Amino acid sequence: MPIIVQKFGGTSVADPDLIRNVARRVAKTRDQGKQVIVVVSAMGHTTDRLVELARAVGDCTPEREMDMLLATGEQVTIALLAIALTGMGYPAISLTGAQAGIITDNAHNRARIVSVDQERIRQELEKGQIVVVAGFQGIDGRNETTTLGRGGSDTTAVALAAALNAEVCEIYTDVDGVYTADPRLVPEAMKIDCISYDEMLELASLGALVLQARSVEYAKHYGVTIHVRSSFNDNRGTLVKEVSGMEECRQLSGVAHDVNVAKIGLFDVPDRPGIAKHLFKALAAEKVDVDMIIQSWMRSGKNDIVFTVTRDDLPRALPVVKRVVGEVGAAGMDYNDHMAKVSIVGAGMVSNPGVAADMFEVLAKENININMISTSEIKISCVIEEDEVIRAVKAIHARMIEKQPA
Amino acid sequence: MPIIVQKFGGTSVADPDLIRNVARRVAKTRDQGKQVIVVVSAMGHTTDRLVELARAVGDCTPEREMDMLLATGEQVTIALLAIALTGMGYPAISLTGAQAGIITDNAHNRARIVSVDQERIRQELEKGQIVVVAGFQGIDGRNETTTLGRGGSDTTAVALAAALNAEVCEIYTDVDGVYTADPRLVPEAMKIDCISYDEMLELASLGALVLQARSVEYAKHYGVTIHVRSSFNDNRGTLVKEVSGMEECRQLSGVAHDVNVAKIGLFDVPDRPGIAKHLFKALAAEKVDVDMIIQSWMRSGKNDIVFTVTRDDLPRALPVVKRVVGEVGAAGMDYNDHMAKVSIVGAGMVSNPGVAADMFEVLAKENININMISTSEIKISCVIEEDEVIRAVKAIHARMIEKQPA
Lengths: 406, 406
Prior knowledge:
The structure is a homodimer. By secondary structure, chain A is α/β, with parallel strands linked by helices. The first copy, chain A, folds into two domains: about 5-175, 3-Layer(aba) Sandwich (Carbamate kinase), CATH 3.40.1160; about 255-400, VC0802-like (2-Layer Sandwich). Chain A is built from eleven helices and 18 strands. In chain A, α1 (about 15-30) crosses α3 (about 65-85), α5 (about 150-165) runs parallel beside α7 (about 215-220) and α10 crosses α11. At the A-B interface, α1, α2 and α3 of A face α1, α2 and α3 of B.
């Protein structure tokens, strides 16, 4: 019997009625003759509530104890879903991450799955059970509960689909699939029927929050087909899979934007080898994630270094940059925490050199100044002012996505 | 370094402030040079709330899934207490029942502890950690989470105290200890300084809800000294331990009462062998717990059988009794679900035959009719009408407990 993995996020299981809704959907798949493994997240805002409780009892929150605490959220949901399914006459059993054989490393709060011991799940499937697995959690080699970080339930689902050779990993969410732009900003945004892993990875890491980037990497590595779809209707969603021929998918996949961007510049940095290394090593030591970097050459033998970080990282980055400015003898520094990034993503880009020029032209026509540009084989990103980002997304979508042949 | 086990119930950890209060008390014990193992229950009404959620999603609540669900309650508390202790500068680690080596049988919802694997706890104590253990839960031989039934955290604490040879098992509660009567009914009730296991067992099973009866059995079996005390002050509470000499403890320990009593009578039952067996086997098959049984002989060769059950069991008991009345040819049946039981408990009873007579005299003076009587070596119980029970408790306490030499 074919195996299907279905993953439901926190908004899909936020209250008892929604849990029964999920149970009905799982039961329908079972009725279609499939073996079903269901992965669920914690109900609604449970995780936030638990984090608040932790902050209320102590000033420091040890990572191991946070994992002990947060893992309870998913454990509640799996038990409730198994109870709901049983009540509808469908044999079901809930399994914690540990019981489901999700073996991780010991990096609490951000553990990585190292293997899946599928024995218990196989046993339960053979007994005819629907298997309900706690997402987001696993167990390390010392019998300690670990969690995979925010959005980790997607990764749990993909890992189980890979280990059990499922025919598809369905990720249920509150939207119909992956869109060519955020539908809340661009009403003309179209659902993407199919997208490659690489394009989805770019979209995921560029701020399209539908799927966790790590789960897409995992799916790519193991060749798992992901189907992103709505838990509130039966519409076909978006398939994320290895795309063989150009004809299978649209040429341009979509426009993504991210407003969690801050820009930092160092001026008149002496042109000596090793200065960039010195700066970015110092930032890495403070765990600052640097995104785009631009170094512009001047005639004078001095240059500017400009880079972007998330706004959350800015307070940690600024003291480091100030120190480095003094150490290397730069003229000064500046920053702007109201920047945004707009990107166009598509596998067709590499064979179509006009895309970048088209994007710059669209932005120029809108009188939007481009601060920084970065490109890869399948995406072009521009850093612009935050208050221009919505206009930029709409214009790029209208001129470059809607106009191309479907 | 001596080991102390401290157990805090749900009311002692009901919110973040109370959890920090518990942490301060644990820290103080640590400062006194003790190794501390803390056992905690779920916060406040968490368990009730989880049961409600389960009922909201399904009509049937499989026992295994209920254990999966309910075990999360204690897991939240252990993480929060470990976080609170760490925040105060006291190294602490939380352990689930499974991690703490609480091995049980596989009777979900009412599991019994079969052994304690103390290796992990020993390791953590040797590292200087305060070990915070989830009460009420364990793991069976198939890696399944089990729970010990309501009040099971007391049993967890006593089992750990026994396995690790702790000098005392402190049970913290919202009263100062075990009293000679319920202080809410009898303001003159006195705290008992020390009480034997057998007397405590009688009090526990007679409705004094301070300690779970099974934990007292466990403590008796392993010779664990229990100290019942308040989590809100430093008063010395009640020691429950093996009492060697009469001089050590008061002659009468206390008055207990229980209003969860229903009485069922069968009239004119033919006097043939095997009828009682037939009746009580049929009741046992429906899982009805029978407490007191009285069979009164008549001259006519017929007799009455009267017995008590809890009020919760009455709906299951009545159809059985009606059926048996027909099968054995009795004249009829009757029941009363407004009965109560009042008991006096004390180790001195066996050597003092006047106690029973004194008790009957006190009730007679109060014009309280005794329906049924049962006695053991250390207790005398009378079944009376529910609306007379408070008067009975007060009178027995005043005439038999307050009057005796302290």
